């Protein structure tokens, strides 16, 4: 009974994540691609948000779908090659969500920074080099996970070592202590470096927003909205994204530490860790859609066109 209940909650959780995450990330990508084609340019922050939506989508396809399918009783449908590709894709894209969110917060921090010599250099160089920074981040994450192609196999009747991660469709056998420890250290260094950097950048953004709030506090209420610039509102959205990520990262890390100190871990605990590790891919696009002015304008225009078209067809009838 407990087993069936766990699978029901797991199916509901991951199918909800898919239903929310897939269309919302596609909306962001489609709108920004349309703006890029129509206007021949895209703001650096929106370029970063497009990349974030893309890696979110890949995280959902590579982890959300397998988990949801497993929850409804489908088993052992992947061969070795498919296991390697899906495992590599998920791990790379999960790493990229950390890196891209960090880049987004650092970019906003640079935008808000005062016009001092060092900041001016960054203001000039970072926006124009976003594509190259993205390439570097992809390379960093790809370099961490060569073991996915070497040690991931489909579930089958074979002997595994004690350094094996038993996933829903695949097994990731690290073979020995050295590979297991090296992989863990590389992931930990990446995670804590980028999470730490985005936290520091966000704290600076909060400080600037606080100073800005004090500055406009004495302004007449009718002028306060105009005092809140586009950068101010964009900064609030970035801080919210980082807060969500750090909170989910904290939950994920706490569950991971728990699994290390407890000899027998309940499958429900493992499911919860995977769910919280994937949840950002569905929550972050909602925040972006609700806070990005260009996306809201495009959606409003589309909605108004649909209403106008519907009213015209109704009047003709």
UniProtKB/TrEMBL annotation:
A GO molecular function held by the record: pheromone receptor activity
This protein's name: Vomeronasal type-1 receptor
Organism encoding this protein: Pyxicephalus adspersus
Entry annotated with the keyword Transmembrane: yes
Major subcellular location class: membrane
Recorded topology in the membrane: Multi-pass membrane protein
Protein location: Cell membrane
Swiss-Prot/TrEMBL GO biological process terms: response to pheromone
């Amino acid at each position: 009974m407990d087993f069936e209940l766990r699978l029901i909650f797991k199916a509901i959780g991951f199918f909800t994540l898919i239903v929310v995450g897939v269309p919302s990330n596609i909306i962001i990508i489609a709108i920004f691609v349309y703006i890029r084609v129509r206007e021949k340019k895209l703001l650096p922050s929106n370029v970063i948000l497009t990349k974030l939506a893309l890696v979110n989508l890949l995280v959902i396809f590579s982890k959300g779908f397998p988990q949801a399918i497993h929850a409804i009783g489908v088993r052992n449908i992947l061969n070795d090659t498919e296991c390697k590709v899906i495992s590599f894709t998920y791990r790379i894209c999960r790493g990229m969500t950390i890196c891209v969110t960090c880049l987004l917060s650092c970019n906003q921090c640079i935008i808000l920074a005062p016009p001092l010599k060092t900041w001016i250099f960054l203001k000039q160089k970072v926006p124009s080099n976003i594509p190259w920074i993205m390439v570097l981040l992809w390379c960093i994450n790809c370099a961490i996970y060569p073991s996915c192609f070497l040690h991931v196999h489909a579930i089958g009747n074979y002997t595994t070592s004690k350094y094996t991660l038993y996933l829903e469709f695949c097994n990731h056998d690290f073979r020995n202590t050295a590979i297991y420890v090296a992989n863990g250290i590389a992931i930990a260094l990446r995670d804590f470096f980028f999470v730490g950097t985005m936290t520091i950048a966000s704290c600076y953004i909060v400080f600037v927003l606080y100073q800005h709030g004090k500055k406009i506090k004495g302004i007449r209420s009718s002028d306060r909205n105009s005092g809140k610039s586009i950068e101010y509102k964009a900064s609030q959205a970035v801080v919210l994204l980082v807060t969500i990520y750090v909170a989910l990262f904290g939950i994920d890390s706490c569950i991971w530490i728990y699994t290390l100190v407890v000899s027998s871990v309940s499958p429900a605990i493992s499911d919860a860790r995977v769910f919280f590790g994937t949840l950002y891919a569905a929550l972050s696009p909602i925040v972006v859609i609700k806070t990005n002015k260009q996306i809201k304008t495009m959606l409003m225009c589309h909605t108004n066109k649909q209403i106008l078209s519907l009213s015209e067809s109704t009047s003709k009838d």
